[in-house]
TrEMBL record, chain A:
A molecular function GO annotation: peroxiredoxin activity
SUPFAM superfamilies xref list: AhpD-like (SSF69118)
Name this polypeptide is given: Alkylhydroperoxidase/carboxymuconolactone decarboxylase family protein
Keywords assigned: Oxidoreductase, Peroxidase
InterPro entries: AhpD-like, AhpD_core, AlkhydPrxdase/COmuclacdeCOase, CMD-like
Domain Carboxymuconolactone decarboxylase-like residues, every copy: 23-101
Pfam families per record: CMD
Source organism of the structure: Pseudozobellia thermophila
Lineage: Bacteria, Pseudomonadati, Bacteroidota, Flavobacteriia, Flavobacteriales
From TrEMBL, chain B:
Domain Arsenosugar biosynthesis radical SAM protein ArsS-like C-terminal: 216-349
Protein name: Radical SAM/Cys-rich domain-containing protein
InterPro entries noted in UniProt: Aldolase_TIM, ArsS-like_C, rSAM, rSAM_ArsS-like, rSAM_sf
Domain Radical SAM core, chain residue ranges per copy: 58-196
Cofactor: [4Fe-4S] cluster
A GO term, aspect molecular function: iron-sulfur cluster binding
Domain of life: Bacteria
Sorted UniProt keywords: Iron, Iron-sulfur, Metal-binding, S-adenosyl-L-methionine
PANTHER family to which the protein is assigned, alphabetical: FE-S OXIDOREDUCTASE, SLR0304 PROTEIN
């Protein structure tokens, strides 16, 4: 076993999770595949959403995978970076909107 | 961008054997990844056999005005391998009698062969149904002696297939060299001006897209939609079809993969994307590739690896279609490049 938590070559082994729980693993991959098919949103748009979420959840495997997927789809680096900013804006907004809770609590506790 | 061919740089990968050692060794010899022949054996298709011959692809020389980073031919201005008129004459004899419906001229930049125009004029008399010239576009703008190529192609009803790595300047120039994008756009506009690529035109203009890096092409139809929209909106350019072709780990692309430490991951990507349904459409099943010096190969990629046809007939001067069609196709691990995803074909055929 590697001496670090993240090993890029582990991404290739993702499919192996079905070995220890075949039914759930297969259901997940079937669902995953279906989600990224062309639908009301194009596969290209979904790839950009996935890239943004990959950054927000800070998944290095997903970042590798969806950067490569974006390149394959001809998505430009400007589009990719804007998607990352969209994710980052929501993430920082999610932090900052809790500031309202802080203000509410502050005001409640203060005379 | 490279300025010289691997050959001129005396790079070890200019040698066929070194490339084949890499393709047959490493992750394949270790058993981490299966050999291509094992995949064919699983389908009951090893040894791999051709179907009816449909395409004669003739490489008229490795000289090119560009030195593209991904070039599997290792072409460039310093390459002196040019088909002679004598070999062209031997090709013409074959073209007159072949059962193939498509003649496909490639290079290098085929237009740089001094006998190119004579050869096209003679070959067009043979009445081949589809006569393709693979033009890199910039050649049309490279020198004024090439400026009339759109009219020349039109006169001989040549089907033009051109490389266009991306519809944005940055990606194109990184792969193919500074200024390539602007020259390509100008050349496409000139081809459009004489009627090439227009929606109802018989003058066929197709584009070839290769990924500009260590990744595979996406769905051909989706890319075609993106290219058509962007080129029409930004430059008022029209074309018929886009062929998304996977880069094969040969010559300069192999050198790039190794130097950028992407080789293993790329081979994993190719093997993971292996699609048994794409095997039926690979071009070696309906093509014979002829090199500048008249040798025969299963495809242009095998030509660059020095893998001649496994047949008694090995040279255009001894050409015999029946004998040739009764052969086993020579394969190695680069073949995964043509069976990845929906498949990849010089003629745009996908699974």
């Amino acid at each position: 076993m590697a001496n670090n938590y993240y090993d890029p070559s582990d991404l290739r082994k993702f499919g192996n999770i079905t070995e220890w729980s075949e039914e759930l693993g297969n259901k997940f991959f079937e669902y995953y595949g279906k989600v990224f098919e062309e639908g009301a949103l194009s596969a290209r748009e979904k790839s950009l959403i996935a890239l943004a979420v990959a950054h927000v959840v800070k998944c290095p495997y997903c970042i590798d995978a969806y950067t490569k997927d974006g390149l394959q789809r001809g998505i430009t680096k400007e589009e990719m970076m804007e998607a990352v900013h969209a994710g980052a804006a929501i993430e920082s907004g999610a932090t900052l909107v809790h500031g309202v809770q802080m203000m509410n609590k502050y005001n409640k506790l203060s005379m | 961008m490279a300025v010289k061919s691997l050959k001129a740089r005396h790079n070890a990968l200019a040698e066929h054997n070194r490339q084949l050692e890499i393709l047959n060794g490493g992750v394949f010899a270790d058993g981490e990844l299966p050999y291509f022949k094992d995949k064919l054996a699983d389908l009951g298709q090893y040894p791999f056999r051709p179907n009816k011959l449909e395409i004669l692809q003739i490489n008229v020389g490795y000289m090119c005005n560009q030195v593209c980073e991904h070039c599997h031919v290792d072409a460039g201005p310093d390459r002196k391998e040019i088909m002679t008129r004598e070999t062209m004459q031997q090709c013409l004899e074959v073209i007159k009698n072949t059962g193939a419906h498509t003649l496909d001229l490639t290079g290098g930049a085929p237009e740089m062969n001094p006998n190119f125009r004579w050869f096209v004029e003679e070959a067009s008399k043979a009445g081949i149904k589809d006569f393709i010239v693979r033009s890199n576009l910039t050649i049309i703008r490279a020198n004024k002696k090439y400026h009339d190529l759109p009219d020349f192609f039109k006169k001989h009803n040549v089907h033009v297939i051109s490389s266009m790595p991306h519809y944005t300047r940055g990606k194109t120039d990184r792969q193919r060299g500074d200024g390539v994008f602007d020259k390509s756009i100008k050349a496409l506009q000139e081809l459009n001006a004489v009627g090439y690529g227009m929606p109802d035109s018989d003058l066929r203009l197709d584009l070839v897209y290769n990924p500009s890096g260590a990744f595979l092409p996406a769905d051909q139809e989706a890319m075609e939609r993106d290219f058509k929209k962007a080129l029409k909106e930004d430059f008022n350019i029209q074309f018929h079809h886009l062929f998304a072709i996977t880069n094969l780990p040969i010559a300069r692309f192999l050198d790039y993969l190794i130097a950028s430490e992407n080789y293993e991951d790329y081979m994993y990507s190719l093997v993971e994307a292996y699609n048994p349904a794409a095997v039926a459409n690979v071009m070696c099943t309906n093509t014979i590739s002829v090199s500048w010096d008249g040798w025969l190969y299963d495809c242009d990629f095998n030509q660059m690896l020095g893998l001649k046809v496994a047949s008694k007939v090995k040279h255009i001067k001894d050409y015999n279609e029946d004998l040739l069609n009764d052969r086993d196709i020579v394969i190695s691990q680069h073949c995964y490049g043509c069976t990845a995803g929906a498949g990849s074909s010089c003629q745009g055929t996908v699974a």
